[in-house]
């Protein structure tokens, strides 16, 4: 985009949308995990860090959900060369597979995590916020109250 105020608002909108999508993803995945309460394939006692990171249950795979959502977000909003696009998709896939190979998730957990991440991306693309709303959210989060004067 051209340099100037429009480019700045476009960047704010992308930051706002990605932040809201990540918060939505964290809340949804944690809620579904607490509701389903499915354990991972290897019965391990969760450690202290697992409890703090809310990584006690396996369904759906949170890492896979966020990796799919972030990669789809970057693929649709950045102009990337084909090799970078392939690496981004490969990265998201390997994030999910690494959790399966570590024994934290079943393969179906990863697949459902990817689907949930794509759903969150699609939802945020559908409910695209206006520039004024994004500017207000960013000003509140940075404690800059200038838009309210």
From TrEMBL:
Keyword Transmembrane included in the entry's annotation: yes
CDD domains: PAP2_containing_2_like (cd03391)
Ranges for domain Phosphatidic acid phosphatase type 2/haloperoxidase: 18-125
Keywords recorded for this protein, A-Z: Membrane, Transmembrane, Transmembrane helix
KW Disulfide bond (keyword) present: no
Sequence intervals crossing the membrane: 74-95, 107-129
InterPro entries per the UniProt record, alphabetical: PAP2/HPO, PAP2/HPO_sf
Pfam families in the record: PAP2 (PF01569)
Signal peptide: none
The protein's name in its UniProt record: Inactive phospholipid phosphatase 7
Organism of provenance: Xenoophorus captivus
